[in-house]
Amino acid sequence: QVQLVESGGGLVQAGGSLRLSCVASGTIFSMNTMGWYRQAPGKQRELVATIISSGNTNYADSVKGRFTIYRDKSKNTVHLQMNSLKPEDTAVYYCNAAGWFGRNPMGEVWGQGTLVTVSS
Prior knowledge:
seven-stranded mixed sheet; mainly beta; about 0% helix; four-stranded antiparallel sheet; elongated
């Protein structure tokens, strides 16, 4: 019932910035956690950043100090501000959300992903 749609990906030069956005729609009774993951070619999907209902955030070491995750709770939207981008940040970025969705009190959904390409 819940769908996530990402936007904001694209091509950027090293050192540049992008802002990703993810909008959740559907029957959402409680949004507990939202986050971003990424998957580069030939690699497993990895956590980039998460934010929970308390506002606490968690970042991968590789992005600390460069990326910021924040939520617009009233709109069930999460953003990822990415600064000082590096070529190794190139990946498909996926939005993830966990909460009470519809009849499922432990729902988890994924977006389809948005491609971020950082050129050197």
